[in-house]
What we know:
Two copies of one chain form a homodimer. The first copy, chain A, has 18 helices and 28 strands. Chain A is α+β, with helices and mostly antiparallel strands.
Amino acid sequence: MIKERLEAIRKLMAKENISAYIIPTSDYHQSEYISEYFKCREYMSGFTGSAGTLVIGINEAALYTDGRYFIQATKELLGSGITLMKIGEEGVMDLLEYVENLLKDGGCLGFDAKYIDANFGIEVAKKIDIKSIDLVSPIWNDRPAMPYSKAFVLEEKYAGESVTSKLVKIREEMRKVDAKYHLVTSLCDIAWIYNIRANDVLHNPVLLAYTLITDDAAYLYTDESKLDFTIDGVTIRPYESIYEDVKKLSGKVMADIDSINYELYLGIDDLEARHNPSTILKAVKNETEIKNLYKAHIKDGVAVTKFIYWLKKNVKSDITEKMAAEHLENLRKEQKGYIEPSFETISAYGANAALMHYSIKDEVVLKNEGFLLVDSGGQYYEGTTDVTRTIALGVLNERMKECYTLVLKGMLSLSDAKFLYGCTGRNLDILARGPLWQNAIDYKCGTGHGVGYLLNVHEGPNGFRYKKPKDEYYDCVIEEGMVSSNEPGVYFEDEFGIRIENEIIAKKHIKNEYGQFMAFETLTLVPFDLDAIDYSLLSKKEIDMINKYHKRVYDELSPFLLEEEKEWLLAMVDGEQGKWMNVL
Amino acid sequence: MIKERLEAIRKLMAKENISAYIIPTSDYHQSEYISEYFKCREYMSGFTGSAGTLVIGINEAALYTDGRYFIQATKELLGSGITLMKIGEEGVMDLLEYVENLLKDGGCLGFDAKYIDANFGIEVAKKIDIKSIDLVSPIWNDRPAMPYSKAFVLEEKYAGESVTSKLVKIREEMRKVDAKYHLVTSLCDIAWIYNIRANDVLHNPVLLAYTLITDDAAYLYTDESKLDFTIDGVTIRPYESIYEDVKKLSGKVMADIDSINYELYLGIDDLEARHNPSTILKAVKNETEIKNLYKAHIKDGVAVTKFIYWLKKNVKSDITEKMAAEHLENLRKEQKGYIEPSFETISAYGANAALMHYSIKDEVVLKNEGFLLVDSGGQYYEGTTDVTRTIALGVLNERMKECYTLVLKGMLSLSDAKFLYGCTGRNLDILARGPLWQNAIDYKCGTGHGVGYLLNVHEGPNGFRYKKPKDEYYDCVIEEGMVSSNEPGVYFEDEFGIRIENEIIAKKHIKNEYGQFMAFETLTLVPFDLDAIDYSLLSKKEIDMINKYHKRVYDELSPFLLEEEKEWLLAMVDGEQGKWMNVL
């Protein structure tokens, strides 16, 4: 089947004198999650992973993907004639080199520039003749429809700021660089600016749209039938007409070159490349959003805490990874204002948890030993949540307890940071990583990412990382009101995985002759697993922190818990488990 | 007297149509310490501080200096007619603005471009007509001679690498940017490249020189009579002739725009602005240098440890801050291979220690209470040292003990850091600052600086800071062999000051699937003050670290101590003081 599709596209390529055709994993908006309509790479290759680029030549084809998908891709590409190119492995030809090789006997490189990010397009066009053309649509007969969902207004009691006010701030930034137009294509920015949400992308409650803002007007390019309301000062234009409209603009156009696609880039005459002002504006949560976030985290905490109690009681009853995730989802659904998961739940038992991007396997049954790692989150009207708990299902060995405790120490240390205003995530990352680094253990990812408000669970620019980012923008100063995840972990292949994740919000702390000190407040309200702690590794201060946190979790959640759940939670607080009292 | 000098220079200014004349604190090499010959600003203003810029107008004059010198400058400028401009205070006119004001009725700005750093010159020349001319020499009749000292070869048993080998590495860097010439004007770089030392600058054992390196030749511009030896492959040229020679160069000249003076900048046709490759090369100490550094720190440790013992025994004997510093200097002089202090010793009692850049006052007598802060270092053939100890002279209040302990905790935490290769000082700074930040205390400076090898005690680019530097170069990756100071502190105005400083050297630690872990080894060997510690604030791990460190100090130093000194030191190690055993 894949072979036939490749044959069909090759016929079209030959007609257009295209010797290599690139199909990346993308929609027109560089979204993290891709709707069915946009899954061209999957359709043409058979590979279902969430990352990868297909390059089709006249006589050969290759799929580039990373370490997360080597096993899956090998399986799925079998018999397709497509070669798997393992990114990061030695001796693997660079993608551009591979393309140049395909072009060595002439012809040009083809792709649909709407799927191509502008930076890549600019880079390639320097060296190679390119032709932008959509060769997938003509052969994809049963292609799914474009995402279609009804949009809704996020009322000001949730959003906390009017569209008018947001546009005023954006226009201020436009004036600073003398921009006549501001083009925004990132869907979460558009949803934030116009206080609208929809369901066009899985897990991200956004509307498929572009927007063009001028000093006195704003144009929203989207399917008008999705909107049963009007937005003050905003004109609706057809979704696709942005491409023609952009070409007609005369004057400076401010746009984020990291998020616009190459087709739009080519249409802009006078580009002022800037990150969207809305990105940093929406990263700083306003008072209303913060007040709501507390509510969302109580709801989410109730669901996850009930889940942990249920799991601990029922682990002997043939529960699978998938059943666990479904039970958690059902508990979230019981919460008023819950909309959908904020990402695909990771429910990974034993060695499966060592894979950072594990997908649930239906057949894995939990046993009365080791850890279940559950990373999940919800979209609520009151905000987006993201929480990970690693739960002891029974017997743990010493190494597991040691690692759980080291991860917890790091998580607590970062949450407890006090720092002068001006610090960035790079300054603080070592607080989370330190206890692991002391033991020559690392996790090969950042410590935390920004979190949206009823928007993307991964939201820039704030976060915690120790490496210098390519773009300084992502090493931004931590502002009051920024929400980030704090999620150190341990991943031992074929053994076990541990991650503990709380969301934390930056707050102003003491101001004195040294300046403005900052601190974090923890939003997430879910107990840690006392059964998994080697408390000989904890300081008195850390034990105090855990006890105080559990007291707060109990106080906030107990009104919504059953008697038996309350008792179980209270035992953690008043030290009935005994060990806490002994240490204190 | 100052008035007469100003009158004299104003006559010369009038003749040259100069309405404002700038005299900065500098020599031709942007050195940290200025020789007598170069103290033009002091001669023309009467102000003796180590930082400040004098601007002379036809009818007025102003001295710009920073907070360290407001009191001193007010006193010294009395009756000179020069206005003190307090940098950083509100309402103080910016220096360039002041200059523009002086020029508003015509005329140009004058300065001797050899004293002006290139970046400043470039900036000013964009807006203002300038004339480079030396107006100080003609009126400074009794001007001291240019610094004159005999240079000596730093033998390979100390330097660890030949000049030839160093030139090979530098030329490699030149080729990378297609530079035909490399101009170096920073004196420590020149001393390092040619394995020569001299005594032309106080505390910095360097030779006044410039150098020009080509692919097959090297020219050292200096007073030939200072050298009683030749250097393989190096031609000596007269010191001042660099200015003429530079103008004749045709081809790309690689030079560090942050260290060359404006006169040289103007002479270069085709500048490739790069930091001197020698700067990073010399920051990474070689095996021989490291072996020697251990020796230097034993010697230095013996002197400082003897000093602390003496001070503790004799504090009731009318010792002044100055006498203490002199005694320490005498103890260093007893060490073989000691050359001179690596900077002016700070010996600050009580509230004086709250001033970070305090100069010893002769009349301050130490009492049987509070702290004496002593920050000092030595130049040895085996390397440069820099160590601070804050010594309890008797009764301390609780706040003092708490702060001493917090500073010590931070110092120990940074010294104990384990981190993946790739980290910079910005990643680690919070380890030292953390315990103070937790208590809303900060110190308004970096945590540590790089240290030279028988060279400048402040040496870039490595160091520990939390703020983003203007130039990323100073946020460099910590390489094995880099030596830095680690010196957190507390400075409470009118109360007390505490600083504890060890030098630490970066080493490779464990290498595994996560990458290359790095760690520090402590070079400094001087006990902390157990009398000043509030041990209830220490963790078991920290107490272990202190005990292990004191054991090492005892083992390394005891062969060189008197019986009574050894006993005193041993008491810290085996816990005879009692309190340590209680905690353990």
